[in-house]
Specification:
It is a single chain. By secondary structure, this protein is an alpha/beta fold. It has two domains: 5-100 and 290-307, Rossmann fold (3-Layer(aba) Sandwich); 102-280, NAD(P)-binding Rossmann-like Domain (Rossmann fold). Helix content is 34%, strand content 15%. The chain is built from eleven helices and twelve strands. It has helices at residues 14-23, 34-43, 60-64, 84-89, 102-117, 120-128, 158-168, 193-199, 219-225, 242-250, 289-307, and strands spanning 5-8, 25-28, 49-53, 71-75, 94-95, 150-154, 173-177, 188-189, 202-205, 230-233, 256-259, 278-280. The strands form two sheets. Strands 8-7-6-9-10-11-12 form a seven-stranded parallel sheet, with helices on both faces. Strand 1, helix 1 and strand 2 form a beta-alpha-beta unit. Helix 5 (102-117) packs across helix 7 and helix 8 (193-199) runs parallel beside helix 9. The longest helix has 19 residues, at 289-307. The mean pLDDT is 97. It binds (2R)-2,3-dihydroxypropanoic acid. (2R)-2,3-dihydroxypropanoic acid is lined by residues 54-55, 76-78, 101, 286.
């Protein structure tokens, strides 16, 4: 039997790439340029499956080059880089990998929250720099209490709800803001994000990216969060007005920020490097061995289901 022909937009994990190569005929998509054009001109009409990721995404222009495309399988939960409406208009199902990463992303939100509140990375830098033993001694500044504090969650999807569950272990008071109240959730809903920010000690962003949430956390929200508050973002950099955030942090009008995501990754505003009231990570919320393996398996399972004539395991 001939193998289905796939276009792979990005290398995933070695085991997943090997499994793809074993079960399919795979063409790797070169970066934009003449090589990519040549590959699409030569093989575009043979391709029935596209493998991509939340980082690599796809757009309508790529779909136009793949006239026989029948299925897309993306590695990641984010849909902001995937033109799902363009795929739907062509009746192409789009698989993605929610659920399997929920816990690790929620864990990292708490890791960041604790890191910025208790100054964990700053303490690490203090010890490594020999400042603990310095004479005369330089006192390490106090952090802020997490247990019993007020947590505001922006976006109460799967990940937001997992963050809320973790907060109960810290005896936190939890409220959330979303487009509308979540069904079957007992937490207090905040219709105004600025009001939630004014109330919260910690504001965690866990909403999806894309045009509808662009700069949802703006200068006004940051002002309301103020010097008593900390921003944690494990969602998408675009949800926060990064320039306003940098200004608020530089002017010490915000308690601090712990960020796993940025507006123009992998670019991070250099002004942040000099500040102690920030924690910066390279978009690693789902990056554990276990979760990435489960995401890779879901990419394979979505494809296998499609080519076996079954519905995708998780479709956008
Ligand atoms: C996701 O799955 O969308 C993560 O943010 C990785 O990009």
């Amino acid at each position: 039997m001939t193998k289905p022909v796939l276009l792979q937009a990005i290398g995933l994990l070695p085991d997943v790439d090997r499994a793809l190569a074993e079960h399919y005929t795979v063409h790797r998509l070169p970066p934009a340029g003449p090589e990519r054009d040549a590959l699409l001109a030569r093989h575009g009409h043979e391709i029935t499956g596209l493998v991509t990721s939340a980082r690599a995404g796809f757009d309508a222009a790529l779909l136009d080059r793949l006239p026989r495309l029948q299925v897309i399988s993306s590695f990641g939960v984010g849909l902001d880089t995937l033109d799902v409406p363009a795929a739907k208009a062509r009746a192409i199902p789009v698989g993605y990998t929610p659920d399997v990463l929920t816990d690790c992303v929620a864990d990292l939100a708490f890791g960041l929250l604790l890191s910025i509140a208790r100054r964990i990375p700053e303490g690490d830098r203090y010890v490594r720099a020999g400042r603990w033993t310095q004479q005369p001694p330089v006192a390490f500044p106090f952090g802020r209490r997490v247990s019993g504090a007020r947590l505001g969650i922006v976006g109460l999807g799967r990940i937001g709800q997992a963050i809320a569950r973790r907060a109960t272990g810290f005896d936190m008071a939890v409220r959330y803001h979303a487009r509308r109240p979540a069904e079957g959730v007992a937490l207090e809903f905040a219709p105004q994000l600025t009001e939630l920010a004014r109330w919260a000690d910690y504001l965690v962003v866990s909403t999806s990216g894309g045009p509808s949430t662009r700069h949802l956390v703006d200068a006004q929200v940051l002002e309301a969060l103020g010097t008593k508050g900390f921003l944690v973002n494990i969602a998408r950099g675009t949800v926060v007005d990064e320039a306003a955030l940098v200004r608020a942090l530089q002017d010490k009008r915000l308690g601090g920020a712990a960020l796993d995501v940025f507006e123009r990754e992998p670019e991070v505003p250099p002004a942040l490097f000099a500040l102690d009231n920030v924690v910066l990570l390279p978009h690693i919320a789902s990056a554990t061995v276990e979760t990435r393996a489960a995401m890779g398996q879901r990419v394979l399972d979505n494809l296998a289901a499609f080519y076996a004539g079954q519905p995708l395991v998780t479709a956008a």
